[in-house]
């Protein structure tokens, strides 16, 4: 049973009639007090997420990042009102506009924005200006790390900006990220040369539609191996290095193999409309 004030009126959709927020799966509502993803997402039911983690991996409750790209502020506010705090966006301009919305600023004071799209160097200053920016998950070069570090320093924030290093584990040309062989060096650079950044983990998109009957997703396995390599080379505790992997189509498998950060969009908010996107088209999430 829902408590507190009901959800706001249905927001209009660009194409078609309003969609009821009550029909949108809400993973921010734990099923039967389980503390995990809700009963409408991926068939998890009341199972707490930590019970999916394999033995030998850090016992960390995975973070749900609700990817709200192309969705209106009303949907973000509704999710926030039900306890969701972490939200992700793929486009810098959309994130800046949404995070600066006066309604979100006033009604969502504890919101944490994750940027999960490809970041071009000429957009770094715009990203750093985003209110309540919590994490950049897509550092894919040492040059980008340096640019972000410099911009965050100039902002004068007392807190370091949390960043993840993105790895192209599938080797696909359509995916951004460092080649696996360059991962440890990039992490070392962030830690030793970027004092305004806090390295918190590794991120990958991986190939979409992997057939699990053939075994675990090899791209996720690559990221697991890279974390082990990075921790051994740089003497980092494994529980301090997060893994951001898993989206709407594969988040449950990602959690089963050790993801600590899943990025779920369409499963929560419904299918997206890209008809008005002028800055990059579709991006996974």
TrEMBL record:
<feature type="region of interest" description="Disordered">
    <location>
        <begin position="1"/>
        <end position="40"/>
    </location>
</feature>
<dbReference type="InterPro" id="IPR029066">
    <property type="entry name" value="PLP-binding_barrel"/>
</dbReference>
<dbReference type="InterPro" id="IPR011078">
    <property type="entry name" value="PyrdxlP_homeostasis"/>
</dbReference>
<dbReference type="Pfam" id="PF01168">
    <property type="entry name" value="Ala_racemase_N"/>
</dbReference>
<feature type="domain" description="Alanine racemase N-terminal">
    <location>
        <begin position="62"/>
        <end position="272"/>
    </location>
</feature>
<dbReference type="GO" id="GO:0030170">
    <property type="term" value="F:pyridoxal phosphate binding"/>
</dbReference>
<feature type="modified residue" description="N6-(pyridoxal phosphate)lysine">
    <location>
        <position position="69"/>
    </location>
</feature>
<comment type="similarity">
    <text>Belongs to the pyridoxal phosphate-binding protein YggS/PROSC family.</text>
</comment>
<dbReference type="InterPro" id="IPR001608">
    <property type="entry name" value="Ala_racemase_N"/>
</dbReference>
<comment type="function">
    <text>Pyridoxal 5'-phosphate (PLP)-binding protein, which may be involved in intracellular homeostatic regulation of pyridoxal 5'-phosphate (PLP), the active form of vitamin B6.</text>
</comment>
<keyword id="KW-0663">Pyridoxal phosphate</keyword>
<feature type="compositionally biased region" description="Pro residues">
    <location>
        <begin position="1"/>
        <end position="17"/>
    </location>
</feature>
<protein>
    <recommendedName>
        <fullName>Pyridoxal phosphate homeostasis protein</fullName>
    </recommendedName>
</protein>
